[in-house]
Amino acid sequence: MEFKEQKRQDFFSSQNIGKILLFTILVFFSGVLQSSLFPALTMLPASPDLVLLSVIGLAVYDGERSGAIAGIGGGILVEALGGGAHILLFPLFYMLCGYIFGIVSRIFLNRNFVSWLLYILIGISLRAALALVHLIFTEVDMTVYAVLTEVIIPEYFVTLICAVPMYFLVRATCRPFHKKIEME
Question: Is residue 59 within 8 Å of 105, Cβ to Cβ?
């Protein structure tokens, strides 16, 4: 087996700096909207996890490295804005989601809307399971039924609904950096 020497891209190239800046803005605004705007909207039963949607989107459309880095940054942002109780829980979870979904999308499934929804369903299901375990062990005064009906299920469906517009936003964000790759 021979290894081909790959052309190494300069980290400080204008394309990389632009990509980092654009992806940072996407994750930052997702976190801010998730923690400030959506909780204030009384018409929604829960706040969607926009950071998870952004992380999975960047992993699918830019690769596992971008997904993992965005996951760490997005997780720290969610923790800093008051979305989590443990300093390592969300960064670790988002990083693993970004890394694993990036690898899976590169190897197994195409980068299209149907595979996007599959990744989102899996991601928010894992997030719901994590939140359920977390709430059961930290919120003593809530029953499992109350946790499911008042927190987990509403957040699951609101996040799933928000996945549709986030698909187009993430795809548009990644498109300038992948003109050679056909993004379905």
Answer: yes
Query: C-alpha distances in angstroms, 50 versus 5, 16, 18, 101?
Result: 38, 24, 22, 16
Pick from 120, 150, 122, 153: nearest CA to 51? 120
pTM of the model: 0.85
What percentage of the chain exceeds 90 in pLDDT? 33
Encoded tokens for 101:
């979904």
Per residue, the 3-state secondary structure of 43-59, as one string, reads CCCCCCCHHHHHHHHHH
Q: Show the beta-strand stretches assigned E in 14-159.
A: none
Query: Three-class SS of residue 183?
Result: coil
pLDDT tier for residue 183 given thresholds of 50, 70 and 90: very low
Segment 30-37 long-range contacts (CB within 8 Å, at least 24 positions apart): 30/54, 30/74, 30/166, 31/74, 31/77, 31/78, 31/81, 31/83, 32/81, 34/78, 34/81, 34/83, 35/78, 35/81, 35/82, 35/83, 36/81
Q: Which domains does the chain have, with CATH numbers?
A: 14-177 (1.10.1760)
Q: Are 174 and 65 in contact (CB under 8 A)?
A: no
Terminal CA-to-CA distance of the chain, rounded, Å?
33
Position 138 scores a pLDDT of 74
Gap between the Cα atoms of 30 and 50, Å rounded: 5
